[in-house]
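sry for the spam today, last one i promise. struct tokens for design, 415 residues
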């Protein structure tokens, strides 16, 4: 059965969502696509998995509403949907279309003995995935193409501790302080080049699962994945139940295919020379990946900024001021402020000179200049500087704090 998004409707009313054989599916697609093209600038149905006997739903990927303020109800009315599960913004909404809502679809149903449309509560599920922009639209259409192709490519990149989604290719683990997602590329063409696969071949299309699997297996990453799958003695090397795609027939078929696949000898020498054809080597793979996408400097800058932040919190705090100088109360703040001013003027090496702004990236936080010199200083050097600051401020009479005067000034500011 189809209609997974409408289980509540099925339970409440007895509505049915039969799976669609190709004639019904194609009739529904041919009917609804022109309707959506009047509402959105870009409309596509991702390439279906080859040889699929039937379909549980029909997926459209769209972007660029033609009318400002296009509403869910307007889309629902245009599709003649009897029920819907709305999702605002750049998300997927589900629509339940009666089997007899359009004559061409109803005719296709009557001509297919596999589909029973007896009764009024027979529907087909149509999903409309609204993308934020054209770039996301292209990525989504690619990742959802040919059944589980996007999920299969996701298995490949896992061998290098990467993750692939409709938002692009990213590192599995966030980096920085606070942790932030680090994207390597949002271009599917560039991602395929990185994997050693041809976008042109994808554009030509595939007529069978075997064609898809052989294409994917031409990637060096496939060798590393095959070795991972064959490592039965290493539980950590095995994909999780989620990664194995339990309930996703095509992905399970690919895993079975790769476990018994014999890589062509003429290709073996070329792909095995790739670092990404090997298991392990995480650090080397990370370095090569960052350089490939030109992200090595940005990555290093984010880590440098994170280290500076962590280091500053660890050594320049009130507890250390009290322990190292014996100063208590408000004068602690005076010492910390003076420390920051002096540190900002220090130039202890290239890393101290390199501020967060040296790399143009929204992920590189604006770290105060005073934090960077701390990366090159030992705890003892920080302590010595702090003691010197305390002595200098004390000699200048700047550690005295008159709380009565301060309170009076505060009250005056509130007036």
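last one done:
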């Amino acid at each position: 059965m189809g209609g997974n998004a409408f289980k509540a409707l099925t339970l409440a009313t007895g509505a049915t969502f039969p799976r669609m054989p190709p004639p019904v599916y194609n009739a529904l697609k041919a009917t609804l696509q022109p309707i959506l093209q009047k509402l959105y600038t870009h409309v596509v149905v991702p390439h279906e998995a080859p040889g699929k006997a039937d379909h549980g739903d029909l997926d459209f990927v769209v972007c660029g509403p033609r009318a400002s303020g296009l509403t869910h109800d307007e889309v629902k009315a245009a599709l003649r949907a009897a029920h819907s599960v709305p999702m605002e913004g750049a998300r997927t909404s589900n629509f339940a279309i009666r089997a007899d809502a359009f004559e061409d679809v109803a005719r296709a149903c009557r001509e297919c003995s596999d589909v029973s449309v007896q009764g009024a509560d027979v529907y087909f599920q149509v999903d409309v995935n609204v993308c934020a922009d054209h770039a996301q639209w292209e990525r989504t259409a690619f990742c959802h193409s040919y059944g589980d192709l996007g999920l299969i490519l996701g298995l490949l990149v896992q061998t290098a501790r990467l993750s692939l989604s409709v938002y692009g290719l990213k590192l599995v683990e966030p980096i920085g302080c606070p942790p932030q997602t680090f994207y390597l590329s949002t271009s599917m063409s560039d991602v395929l080049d990185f994997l050693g696969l041809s976008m042109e071949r994808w554009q030509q299309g595939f007529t069978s699962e075997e064609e898809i699997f052989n294409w994917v297996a031409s990637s060096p990453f496939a060798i590393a994945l095959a070795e991972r799958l064959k490592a039965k003695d290493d539980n950590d090397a095995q994909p999780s139940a989620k990664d194995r795609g339990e309930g996703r027939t095509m992905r399970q078929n690919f895993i079975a295919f790769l476990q018994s696949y014999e890589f062509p000898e003429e290709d073996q020498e070329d792909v095995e020379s790739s670092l990404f054809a090997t298991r392990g080597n995480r650090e080397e793979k990370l370095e090569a990946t960052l350089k490939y996408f030109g992200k090595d400097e940005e990555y290093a800058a984010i880590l440098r900024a994170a280290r500076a932040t962590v280091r500053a919190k660890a050594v320049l705090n009130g507890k250390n001021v009290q322990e190292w100088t014996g100063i208590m109360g408000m004068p602690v703040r005076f010492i910390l402020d003076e420390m920051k001013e002096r540190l900002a003027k220090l130039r202890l090496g290239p890393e101290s000179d390199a501020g967060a702004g040296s790399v143009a990236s929204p992920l590189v936080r604006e770290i105060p200049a005073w934090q960077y010199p701390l990366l090159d200083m030992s705890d003892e050097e920080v302590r010595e500087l702090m003691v010197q600051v305390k002595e200098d401020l004390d000699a200048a009479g700047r550690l005295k704090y008159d709380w009565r005067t301060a309170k009076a000034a505060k009250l005056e500011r509130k007036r």
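Residues 348-356 have pLDDT under 50 and may be disordered. ok im logging off now
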